[in-house]
Write a structure and sequence with these properties.
The complex is a heterodimer of chains A (202) and B (186). Chain A has helices at 5-17, 32-42, 44-58, 61-86, 94-109, 116-139, 144-171, 175-198. Chain A has 202 residues and is mostly helical. The longest helix of chain A is centred in the last third of the chain and has 28 residues, at 144-171. Chain A is globular and about 45 Å long. With 186 residues, chain B is mainly alpha-helical. Chain B has a domain at 57-186. Helices cover 78% and strands 0% of the residues of chain B. Chain B has helices at residues 2-13, 22-31, 33-49, 53-73, 81-97, 104-123, 132-153, 160-185. Classes of the chains: A mainly alpha (202), B mainly alpha (186).
Chain lengths: 202, 186
């Protein structure tokens, strides 16, 4: 586990280009739609960034939440389908995923939610980044289009529920809970980046 | 918040690559009494200090903890980590026992400073073959829940008997910290 600064920099450069560990759907035994719907729930790299964006958007109230939700879900669905149709394996660099998580989490922690327009753009960026990778997972499944629809539904449900809970808390004057959640997400993102820099843990 | 925790735990329990980590990450702060008591004491102290410290201390702690973990990743050797963790329990117990009310920045600095040593210990103890992300999710969640336990216990602070109870709990943490220090020095 001990590495010098040079080794850390070299590993950082390599890992920023490396694909993530797995690209398959978990089997729920309920068919491809449910396999796809479960995917964002059981893939931490996807779930954490959805939670971070939804929490940040909730700090901007219902308007911010709606914008982020539309951008995220639409971009995620289109990118997943495009990635499948394209046929080439695509993956998000782990350091980019970690960086995104840290940025979103820190913005929550310091209560600096951007404008609804920026949230829309962030939603699209996150959706494209993760949707492209999810295309690879959908491709490996039996019913590709049903899996894609399932993934889109899963993302929508998680993002909507989280945003709704966040907006509810924010309206009740409990925005501090969102800031605490943001700090946890940022901390996980920083640690994820740290493990990437430190080299393969497993 | 609970919804978020449920989802994170669900995600972390699914181990696609065959590499675990959530369980060991989650249990790491819980199975080390020195970590657990210090983090509960942070929550107790936050409850005593009231707003905004009650919210800011649990925000500062995990963020500073990651800095400590980074120091561990980078291979820098921090000396006397166990001693500093024991000292964190002693001092945090002491401030709760004495109901110390320093300026907010000083409270944050103290908590963040100790968090670095706790993070270092977590960061250098990833079990072989386990997944770093899931391990991180586990120990950040566990740390946050320990703060929440402290804050929840601290709700009794509004009662006169509750204030005495909290001071007693602080004293208990302080004594346990002295034991940890003795063990670390032996």
């Amino acid at each position: 586990m001990k590495h010098g600064p040079r080794a850390l920099l070299a590993t950082a450069a390599c890992s920023s280009l490396a694909p993530t560990a797995s690209a398959h759907l978990v089997s729920t035994e309920l068919g491809p739609f449910y396999d796809g719907a479960a995917h964002p729930l059981v893939t931490p790299e996807d779930l954490l960034v959805i939670l971070a964006l939804a929490t940040l958007a909730a700090l901007r109230g219902a308007e911010g939440g709606r914008r982020a939700l539309v951008g995220l879900c639409a971009a995620w669905t289109v990118a997943t389908a495009a990635s499948f149709a394209w046929g080439a394996p695509l993956s998000a660099p782990p350091l980019l995923v970690a960086g995104l998580l840290v940025a979103l989490g820190l913005a929550c922690a310091v209560n600096r939610a951007p404008s609804p327009r920026v949230l829309l753009a962030l939603g699209i960026a996150v959706g494209v980044l993760h949707g492209l990778e999810n295309g690879s997972a959908a491709r490996a499944a039996d019913g590709v289009w049903l899996s894609t629809l399932g993934i889109a539904s899963g993302v929508f449900v998680v993002a909507t529920l989280t945003t709704a809970c966040g907006v509810h808390l924010e309206r009740r004057g409990a925005a501090i809970a969102l800031r605490v959640a943001g700090s946890w997400l940022a901390a996980i993102g920083l640690l994820f980046a740290g493990w990437q820099l430190a080299g393969p843990a497993g | 918040m609970l919804h978020t925790i449920d989802l994170l735990a669900l995600a972390a329990l699914h181990e696609t690559s065959g590499a675990g980590g959530f369980g060991s990450g989650f249990l790491h702060p819980l199975t080390g009494a020195d970590h657990a008591l210090a983090m509960i004491a942070v929550g107790l102290w936050g409850a005593q200090l009231g707003k905004p410290a009650v919210a800011l201390l649990p925000v500062a702690f995990p963020l500073a903890m990651t800095l400590g973990a980074f120091v561990g990743f980078s291979g820098v050797e921090l000396g006397a980590v166990e001693i500093c963790i024991a000292l964190s329990a002693i001092l945090l117990g002491l401030v709760v026992m004495l109901e110390t009310r320093p300026p907010l920045w000083l409270a944050l600095l103290l908590v963040a400073g100790f968090a670095i040593f706790h993070g270092y210990a977590h960061g250098t103890e990833l079990p072989e073959g386990e997944d770093g992300l899931r391990y991180s999710i586990g120990f950040v969640l566990s740390t946050g829940l320990l703060h929440a336990v402290g804050i929840t216990l601290g709700l009794v602070h509004r009662h006169a008997w509750g204030r005495k109870l909290m001071r007693g709990l602080g004293g208990g943490v302080c004594i346990a910290g002295c034991w940890f220090l003795w063990s670390a020095l032996r």
